[in-house]
Design brief:
This protein is α+β, with helices and mostly antiparallel strands and 230 residues long. The protein folds into two domains: 102 residues, Glutaredoxin (3-Layer(aba) Sandwich), CATH 3.40.30.10; 106 residues, Glutathione S-transferase Yfyf (Class Pi), Chain A, domain 2. It contains eleven helices and four strands; from the N terminus they run E-H-E-H-E-E-H-H-H-H-H-H-H-H-H. Strands 2-1-3-4 form a four-stranded mixed beta sheet, covered by helices on one side. The longest helix is centred in the middle third of the chain and has 29 residues. The structure holds glutathione (GSH). The site of glutathione has 13 residues, from helix 1 and helix 3.
């Protein structure tokens, strides 16, 4: 059975949603990153980048969330335009990579500098907050003219979107973030109502992940800080 290495963070949740949408049987393999399980040598054989998500299915190993979405959707021939060289495939790849290289990293760094980094952080927070807003504004504008990220068809791009869209108020540090981004909220609410999304969210209850961001957790999550102590 497919093994799904995960925690409850945005990138693994994208993959949880696709697995649930496809109805694929899978074995959840929790990786508690605040306990340093991402650095377990057995897990590093699966993902040398020491991050979740990753999957192992027979002799196939795939890591990085958007690579997994594309791999499974292509294999199952669902939630993805199949004509390899067509315009829809080009559009799908553009938005999928925009989320992988823009929405994810800038939102992640915005979270880090807003909620975890020590002072002084004004310069870095300003940069990542600005870029997170800029990327989310592009998505909001796109969704003002498109029901889903690829127009009329629900696809893996919406699943990649969903992983991070759930976090937008936290990413931007604004409880009223939805006032500025109503089209994102509209699609988020629609996906949240899907039974597959509710099953994906329920994965969190199947394992108790460490909640405290104590010194030990900080050492595992932010190993770069050890260099500052020398
Ligand atoms: N590009 C990767 C990023 C994966 C990633 O950053 N995962 C986070 C959870 S969302 C993680 O494993 N963090 C633990 C750590 O950085 O030690 C993907 O899209 O899968």
């Amino acid at each position: 059975m497919l093994k799904f290495y995960y925690n409850a963070a945005p990138n693994p949740m994208k993959v949880a949603l696709l697995l649930e949408e496809l109805g694929l049987p899978y074995e959840p393999m929790p990786i508690d990153t605040r306990k340093g399980q991402q650095f377990d040598p057995a897990f590093q054989q699966v993902n040398p980048n020491s991050k979740v998500p990753a999957i192992v299915d027979g002799d196939v190993t795939v890591f990085d969330s958007n690579a997994i979405l594309l791999f499974l959707a292509d294999r199952e021939q669902k939630f993805v335009p199949l004509q390899t060289h067509g315009a829809e495939r080009g559009e799908m790849l553009s938005w999928l990579m925009f989320i992988a290289t823009g929405i994810g990293p800038f939102s992640g760094q915005s979270v880090h500098f807003r909620h975890a980094a020590p002072e002084p952080k004004e310069y870095a927070l300003n940069r990542y907050d600005f870029e997170a807003h800029r990327h989310w504004a592009i998505v909001n504008q796109h969704l003002s003219n498109n029901h889903y990220m690829l127009g009329s068809h629900y696809s893996i791009v919406d699943m990649a979107f969903w992983g991070w869209a759930r976090m937008v108020p936290y990413v931007l540090g604004q409880d009223d973030a939805w006032t500025a981004y109503p089209h994102i909220k509209r699609l988020l609410d629609e996906i949240n109502a899907r039974p597959a999304a509710q099953r994906a969210e329920a994965l969190k209850t199947r394992n108790t992940f460490k909640a405290e961001l104590d010194d030990e957790a900080r050492r595992f999550m932010f190993p770069q800080n050890e260099r500052l102590k020398k």
